[in-house]
Design a protein that fits this description.
By secondary structure, this protein is an alpha/beta fold. Helix content is 33%, strand content 19%. The protein is built from 14 helices and 20 strands. The two termini are 30 Å apart. The structure holds flavin-adenine dinucleotide.
Length: 479
């Protein structure tokens, strides 16, 4: 079967990869001239990479790890020490670590929490452990039910106290969703906590050894093309053209540089575009259908990714850092964490600025100036004194609409991969899957879409389906 997929982010590429495995012929159509969507990266005129986002991989990403294994590129993940490191804003320049010992879960996480006395008092630890019991006992069902509360509300209901939110979970909330604990659905943080508590290496972090475009997306493209599929850049979907019965007749691509528009036909059609891009393209007759109407409840959240190159080494820490700053979310010295960006003499800090709604329309200069002021608190020994580190160059990448904004009540709006339209499917980390708006969620959604397409075939070719289901694709409903 020929399957046309709009969008070459991780969801679209993963969908195409698993369709190849099931014996089909995908053609991926990407609007931009770069692969990867939210993991896209570019090389500047000095040959330095800059990225849409600082991306951390977790041990609790089974579908991503499986995909890398299937592509034979699992060695491209550089695993870091099993620890979570937080800045301590009240003591500028100092760090607090949750070192996770190599013992079975959940004892490893419990031990890391018990051993950390900088960020949680004993009373907070005990209250938090009791508060988490329903999530541990009732699992994902309870976690989904808690979508009606923000994480700050959930903490209050469990009697844990709001300080924990500002002390610890502001960092986790901003890192996972780019919004604060008083805005984020408690389902998000409880899902992450549950995975970390259940999997021995779930919270272990890895960095890719180079740019996601070259080191992660390109091998997927190579696999797709070797299997007879296609991936086309500069191929923007302009219109989803319908048959009289409301099914998809064809994808109409916008002609670029004076070229005429182009028609692409297939047996099945997939939108692997972001939810915001899909919403503006929904054909009129579909707009009253419940599954598509609900998309109005989802919207991408703004985020900014900064890259700052300095004239000296600022730190030798080879790990993701949770800033706990009001301006920033996570950051890393990529000259330590990423093989291709390595530099023994000079640091390149990659930093995520979130929440970014008040910053997204500001100039790069304003954003960099505010970040430099923040660095005085994070790395006081190198800034704000006699001989401060010199900023050599910078890149600011703004994404006005990134992953869906995971505020309370959003779970009910996330659509399944299979739609009421017989030959039209959805993929994307915003669609319903248990890993939220993440790389793992995107890869899993692509796999679930490929499965849904195979299942919709009249004979549901059993052998092809087995190929897909051998891999660990699980959805929220079945988890
Ligand atoms: C700053 C930042 C940091 C992040 N950090 C992490 C992290 O540490 N760990 C993690 O797991 N996740 C992280 N994420 C989230 C992760 O990147 C995303 O969840 C994931 O990449 C989304 O993939 P996707 O394929 O669902 O969507 P997208 O990447 O948005 O892909 C959609 C694709 O559709 C294309 N498209 C849109 N319109 C059209 C059209 N008309 N025609 C054809 N194509 C079209 C787009 O160009 C894009 O390529 C981060 C994201 C950002 C922005």
């Amino acid at each position: 079967m020929r399957v046309a997929i709009a969008g070459a982010g991780l969801a679209g590429l993963s969908c195409a990869k698993y369709l190849i495995d099931a014996g089909h012929t995908p053609i991926v159509l990407e609007r931009r001239d770069v692969l990867g969507g939210l993991v896209a990266a570019w090389k500047d005129s000095d040959g330095d990479w800059y990225e849409t986002g600082l991306h951390a991989f977790f041990g609790a990403y089974p579908n991503m790890l499986q995909l890398l294994k299937e592509l034979g590129i699992q060695d491209r993940l550089q695993w870091k020490e099993h620890t979570l490191i937080f800045n301590q804003p009240e003591k500028p320049g100092t760090l607090s670590r949750f070192d996770v010992p190599d013992i079975p879960s959940p004892f490893n996480i419990i031990a890391s929490i018990l051993r950390n006395n900088d960020m949680l008092t004993w009373e907070q630890k005990i209250r938090f452990a009791i508060g988490l019991l329903p999530a541990i006992v009732r699992g994902q069902k309870y976690v989904e039910e808690m979508d009606k509360y923000s994480f700050a509300e959930w903490l209050k209901r469990q009697g844990i106290g709001e300080r924990v939110a500002s002390d610890v979970f502001i960092a986790a909330s901003k890192a996972l969703t780019f919004i604060n604990p008083d805005e984020v659905s408690s389902t998000i943080l409880l899902t992450a906590l549950n995975r970390f508590l259940q999997e021995r290496y779930g919270s272990k972090i890895a960095f890719l050894d180079g740019s996601p475009t070259e080191r992660l997306c390109q091998p997927i493209v190579d696999y797709i093309t070797a299997g007879g599929g296609q991936v086309r850049l500069n191929a923007p979907l302009k219109q989803i053209v319908l048959n009289p019965d409301g099914t998809v007749k064809e994808f109409l691509l916008r002609g670029l540089n004076g070229e005429p528009d182009e028609v692409v036909t297939a047996d099945f059609y997939v939108s692997a575009m972001s939810v915001d891009a899909l919403k503006v393209m929904l054909p009129e007759p579909w707009q009253q259908i419940d599954c598509f109407q609900k998309l109005e409840g989802l919207e991408g959240v703004p985020v900014i990714n900064l890259h700052l190159w300095f004239d000296r080494k600022l730190t030798d820490i080879d790990q993701l850092l949770f800033s706990r700053s009001p301006l920033l979310s996570v950051y890393a010295d990529m000259s330590n964490t990423c093989r291709e960006y390595a530099n023994p003499d000079r640091s390149m800090l990659e930093l995520v600025l979130a929440p970014a709604k008040d910053w997204i329309s500001k100039s790069d200069e304003e954003i960099i100036a505010a970040t430099m002021t923040e660095l005085e608190k994070l790395l006081p020994e190198h800034f704000g004194q006699e001989n401060p580190a010199k900023l050599l160059k910078s890149h600011v990448v703004k994404t006005p609409r990134s992953v869906y904004k995971a505020t309370p009540g959003r779970q009910q709006y996330r659509p399944p991969q299979k739609t009421p339209i017989a030959n039209f499917f959805l993929s994307g980390s915003y669609t319903m899957q248990r890993y939220l708006g993440s790389m793992e969620g995107a890869v899993l959604s692509g796999k679930l879409t490929a499965q849904a397409i195979c299942e919709s075939l009249p004979e549901a070719s059993a052998s092809n389906l087995q190929t897909l289901t051998r891999t660990p694709a699980t959805n929220a409903a079945t988890a």
